[in-house]
Amino acid sequence: MSNSINEQIDSRRTFAIISHPDAGKTTITEKLLYFGGAIRDAGTVKGRKTGKFATSDWMEIEKQRGISVTSSVMQFDYDDKRINILDTPGHEDFSEDTYRTLMAVDAAVMMVDVGRGIEPQTIKLFEVCKMRGIPIFTFINKMDREGKEPLDLMEELEEVLGIESYAMNWPIGMGRDFLGIYDRFNNRIEQVGAEGDDRLLALNEDGGLAEPHPMIDTPYYKQTLNDIELLNEAGNEFDEERVAKGDLTPVFFGSALTNFGVQTFLETFLKFAPPPQPRLTMEKVEVNPKSEEFSGFIFKIQANMNPKHRDRIAFVRIVSGVFERGMSITVPRISRVFKLTQTTQFLADDRETVDQAVAGDIIGIHDTGNYQIGDTVVGGKSSFIFDALPQFTPELFVRVSAKNVMKSKHFHKGILQLVQEGAIQYYRTLHTEDVLLGAVGQLQFEVFEHRMKNEYNVEVQMEYLGSKVARWIENEGDVQESMAGQRAMLVKDRFEKLVFLFENEFAMRWFHDKHPTIKLYDLL
To answer: Which residue(s) pair with 136 in the sheet?
Structure first.
């Protein structure tokens, strides 16, 4: 592979932003895009060539509710780096989409609300990152509001998440009295409300302000110097190797809304975030990003990003080599070859055709129903499959049908496409062929109903079956229909595998006692 291609791969930084809802993910994404020249003002994203505007929360229901329920992909250039941001859903009902997205990144930025600290969804997402061993960078947001003490937040990070932390900077005051940040890494103070050269103040050898300044007389500055002394003496040491392994999280304080501390964070993050990393195949063989042959995997499928065209896009994380438009790829799962002519890169919901991309990039390929989430795509003569993406056992179920029988064709087409996106799971009863949907959270059903009406012009009626304990069967051949009953419904999933839906844990234990030879399992 040529040096120029290797340099392009080394310049890639692909990361996800994770947090509990309302911690500021979308806001910081917009600010990062602003520094990359991709937006003109907060809330609007413009294409590099088209000048069109868009927002990172593109789906209609997201705009209505002010939440992200899909993973947006955005790309921009900054400081000789090509950056791919994946802005993930914060809402816990959409954790499946987020977990799969985390399989496609090399680092994560964890947003923490200064007033709320570590929240439940943050813990879940952090655990996935930790499990993968990817570097985690923490941005403690909303310093322009009153919140928890910085030292308490650092302690919370270590005690609740079990990861050691290193403060790259430290807040001077908070809320109305937020004066700026003491930048330990760059040995300077960045002050709020100042522009140009006045924004950055130099520190002397003793760690104090080098020049006289009104801030020196404030109690917040004096408290910060005391905190810095404590951190220097008793805090963790910065260790780049431990950051790379995900054992130490660099911590930054700032305010995404007021755009304070974000640029300093971005520049420091790019120094330590890793370039594209190798990925394991099912046979545990490591595929190097700089391998000659193109390979990647599909971590997301999204229908109707452009409602006018009723399109379907499969999102591919390129693992190795170079993608070139018009090349042929193989999908080993179905042993079929496809020519990739309709390919895109993203700026939120604005897209442009991509002719070339390298390992670390995210591209979208046009899908007419051939691809599935988790599919490996390879160029050349190689044939291997990457490690499987996580699947989740649904907990809530509904029976669903079209209100208008004449809309049956649109109903089944809509369900098929939305199920293939991975947000809901599809089941049907054995003889009556009733359609059942399973989901991790209630909001997924609401989004399904909304999208069926707005994107497929089908109104649906849903009968809530409540929570069920879903279990797949290892030895399907030993299952008899008579084993099912009121408390153990027997259905088939979209892959024609048998699944028991138990009324509760007690019903499952009763079944196990009565049929000990039947081996049950869940997805994750």
So the answer is: 108
Give the amino acid at 92.
E
pLDDT value, residue 83: 92
Containing 329, the helix (H) or strand (E) segment is: strand 328-331
Q: How many CB atoms lie within 10 A of CB 397?
A: 23
Cα three-residue angle 411-333-369, rounded to 5 degrees: 25
Residues in Cβ contact with 178 at an 8 Å cutoff, skipping those fewer than 6 apart:
143, 144, 171, 172, 192, 255
List the Cα angle 42/47/51 in 5-degree steps.
85
The domain 396-521 having CATH identifier 3.30.70.3280: the answer here is yes
Alpha carbon separation from 91 to 21, 39, 57, 65, 345 (Å, rounded): 6, 25, 13, 11, 25
Residue range(s) in the chain whose domain bears CATH number 3.40.50.300: 10-70+92-272
Average pLDDT over residues 339-360: 77
User: Which backbone phi and psi does 225 adopt, to 5 degrees?
Assistant: -60, -40
pLDDT bin (cut points 50, 70, 90) of residue 51 is: very low
Interatomic CA distance for residues 101 and 128, integer angstroms: 11
Q: Which residue type does 180 have?
A: G
Query: In 32-61, which positions are buried (b, 16+ CB within 10 angstroms) versus exposed (e)?
Result: bbbbbebbeeeebbbbeeeeebbbbbbbeb
Angle, nearest 10°, between helix axes 442-456 and 408-420? Answer: 130
- 3-state DSSP call for residue 488? strand
Average per-residue pLDDT in the chain?
A: 86
pLDDT tens-digit series, residues 184-219: 999 999 999 888 778 899 999 999 998 899 999 999
Q: How many residues does the chain have?
A: 524
User: What's the CA angle centered on 343, arms 341 and 344, to 5 degrees?
Assistant: 155
Rounded to an integer, what distance in angstroms lies between the CA atom of residue 216 and that of residue 220?
9
pLDDT 10s digits, 221-248: 999 999 999 999 999 999 999 999 999 9
CA angle 34, 58, 264 (to 5 degrees): 25
- pLDDT number for residue 60: 53
Alpha helices in 150-218 (DSSP H): 150-161
CATH of region 10-70+92-272, choose from 3.30.70.1110, 3.40.50.300, 3.40.50.720, 3.90.650.10: 3.40.50.300
Q: What angle do CA 417, 420, 424 make, to 5 degrees?
A: 95
Q: According to CATH, where is 3.30.70.3280 located in the chain?
A: 396-521
**143, 151, 144, 187: which is closest to 168 by C-alpha?**
187
Rg (CA), the chain: 25
Axis crossing angle, helix 25-35 with helix 262-272, rounded to the nearest 10: 80
Burial label for 332, CB within 10 Å (0-12, 13-18, 19+), is: middle
Both tokens of 178, joined, read: 């937020």
pLDDT at 65: 44
